Amino acid sequence: MDRWAAHPGLRGNAEVLRVSASMLDRTERDCADFAAAKARTGLWPRVHERRRYAPWEDFPLGLVQRALDAVEFDGADPDEAVDEVIAQNRSPVHPGAAVWVRYACRAFLQAAEWIADELEAEGVELVPERLPRVVQSASGTASAVELRMLTAWGRWYGSRDGTVREFRRLRLSRTRQAAAPSDQAIAFVAAAGRRAVGNLYRDAPVEVTDDEDAPTRIRVVEVALVADVRPQVLVDAAPDEVRRRYQEEVRPLAQAVTVGGAHRPGSDCAECKLRASCEDLPNVPGLLGLNDRGTHRRTWSVTTGRHYVVCPARAHLRDLRLPPETLLNEGSSVRRGVVVHHWLEAAHGRGRPCSPDDLPDPGSGDMGPAAGLMSPEEYAEARPYLLAHLAVCPLAGPGRVTDVAAEPTVAVFDPDADVLVVAHPDLLRRVDGRLVYREQKTTVRELPAGTPAELFEQIPQLALAALLIAHGVFGEPAGTVELEVMTPQTAEVRTFAAEDPEVLRAARRQITEMVRPWHRDTEFPATPGPWCERCPTARWCPAPRTPAPLRDDSPIEVDGVLIDPRTGEILGSPGVLTPRAAAVSASLDSPDPDPDDDPPF
To answer: Can the keyword Thylakoid be found in this entry's annotation (predicted)?
Structure first.
């Protein structure tokens, strides 16, 4: 029997499967059952939940699509089209998101001109097509018919004589260097798909219409919504070649998506149909210490909290996946922290202690495990910190070390707050059976000594770690939180017992105070200050920036605290480190991964 038809946590019809081409790019780190359940559009959680929607526009890329429709199909002026789309939107649009929508539309139209110029030289003219394409087929018996659909989300074009079909993939900030299975799946939809007259995402089957002419050329083009970035042709082939490659290389992946497999709790859990019945997602009422369910189901991490403390608008625009500026990492300690973390993840993933042999002299030309992870210049900068790490390597003991997990993703659901909490420990392990949760930090200066509350203020990841352990997320409600601090000269480890009442009180206070204002906010106002100059989303913020210091290396002052703008190091403090000063410092010296650049389809 099909496990999905009889799934204890789901109800409905398991025989309708709709796979979006982008699902084929998921990796082993993603949850396979999330994708399989999502593909079954007729299945729903057995325990009914009333879905609560965001009280703001949470998908600005959809606004870009609507504005481009008005431009390409109705001849509207681009700026007027954006204004109209935003004004008529059912949900309020954050001013920063509105800035980005206008920018993204202009970038797309610039790319469209380049594409048209290149094809004109070949004697080809493409026109936009309103109707998307879908490949759908039915199979089965008289009593049970399975309907399978393959779709693609983007913009469709074709030549007037029908010989050329083109699909344009939208990327938020950059084009990819490597090919992806979804490229060939999209090409197959373009080659074999029929135009959808009905609703592609609600109807099953979808009403379709045939083209008058068969194509002879299929193109898939990637368009980064960034000014002056040229589009990239991903596929340009004959339909027969497209079909062959899909059948041989991609179709097995599409079938595997519908089967499902291992659970991997993570950010997918917030929208997963299996959340309420998933045994692998810890359900921890009261984890965040909030007594209301906020606006709707959302995802929170320490990174989100840190950005919110600095500026609510910054946190919101990051949550919307708007592309950040990348100049922050250049020449700062952020890149150093990133490469050190990458090295440690790779080294600890081997399951054995780090040794001096792993860190050959940079002048030897041998980079050891660092080869392929960083440049020679980055290795030379990171090596002193890694040499210091050898003395405190967590896999070297003392004690029996088991269950090592480097850089795992930890996801926990708090139903009281209706929030999915996501954490990324640097290392989890057990020492003589006791859980140990380690966070690692590189710095040119040692962190000042302090109480747990003072350290949690500077590094909230430690507070969240203590709460996760104390709430039994990893099993027994006891364990050790470690902070490894590496300087170029030495490394030390500070430890906290998660079951210690003082530690737990400090952790609860830190996380609850960090989450509460974010949880209730619906406006996300900008709070300009000296941190604007290094803000990853400043280019979309309509609020005026605080003037930059006269010199790039001039300290910035936040609530009386002097901070090095290049490294995030605290240079001077009146004694009390405010939450905002701590967050600004952390945002400058801590690795902050870019938001997902792919549309979530």
So the answer is: no
Nearest Cα residue to 358 out of 350, 349, 368, 348: 368
Q: Distance between CA atoms of 587 and 211, rounded to whole angstroms?
A: 53
Sorted by sequence, the CB contacts under 8 Å of residue 290 that are 6+ apart come out as: 414, 416, 417, 419, 512, 515, 516, 519
Collapsing DSSP states into helix, strand and coil, what is residue 359?
Answer: coil
DSSP 213: S
Question: Can you tell me which residue has the tokens 């104390």?
Answer: 470
Task: Describe the crossing of helices 32-39 and 251-259 by its angle, rounded to 10 degrees.
Answer: 90
Domains plus CATH for the chain? 60-259 (no CATH), 298-518 (3.90.320.10)
Q: In terms of C-beta distances under 8 Å and separation of at least 24 residues, what long-range contacts does 36-40 make, across chains too?
A: 36/4, 36/257, 36/258, 36/259, 36/260, 36/261, 37/4, 37/10, 37/260, 37/272, 37/273, 37/274, 38/271, 38/272, 38/273, 39/257, 39/258, 40/4, 40/10, 40/13, 40/14, 40/16, 40/258
- Is the pLDDT score of 152 beyond 70? yes
Query: CB of 341 within 8 A of CB of 426?
Result: yes
Single-letter residue type at 278: C
Pairing assessment for the beta strands 145-151 and 16-20 based on DSSP bridges: parallel
| Cβ atoms within 10 Å, residue 365 | 8
Alpha-carbon gap, residue 433 to 421, rounded angstroms: 26
pLDDT digits (tens, 9 = 90+) for 280-316: 999 999 999 999 999 999 999 999 999 999 999 999 9
Summarize pLDDT for 122-131 with one digit per residue, the tens: 999 999 999 9
Cα distance between residue 236 and residue 242, in whole Å: 9
**In one letter, which amino acid is 375?**
S
Q: Kindly report the pTM of this predicted structure.
A: 0.92
Cα 453 from Cα 460, distance rounded (Å): 10
Question: Judging by DSSP bridges, how do beta strands 232-237 and 298-300 pair with one another?
Answer: unpaired
pLDDT for 248: 95
Q: Is 558 helix (H, G, I), strand (E, B) or coil?
A: strand
C-alpha distances in Å from residue 417, one per residue of 193, 289, 387, 404: 43, 8, 43, 31
3-state helix, strand, coil in the chain (%, to 5): 40, 20, 40
Q: Specify whether the CB–CB gap between 215 and 164 falls below 8 A.
A: yes
Of the candidates 556, 550, 557, 559, the one whose C-alpha atom is nearest the C-alpha of residue 578 is: 559
Give the CB-side neighbour count of residue 179, counting CA atoms within 13 A.
Answer: 12
Give the three-class secondary structure for 312. Answer: helix
- β-strand pairing of 427-431 with 419-423: unpaired
Within 14-76, strands assigned E span: 16-20, 43-45
* Residue 429 · residue 307 · CB < 8 Å: no
Rounded Cα gap, residues 497 and 508, in angstroms: 14
Q: Shortest CA distance to 426 belongs to which of 350, 340, 318?
A: 340
- Separation of alpha carbons 21 and 181, rounded Å: 8
Distance (Å, whole) CA 368 – CA 382: 13
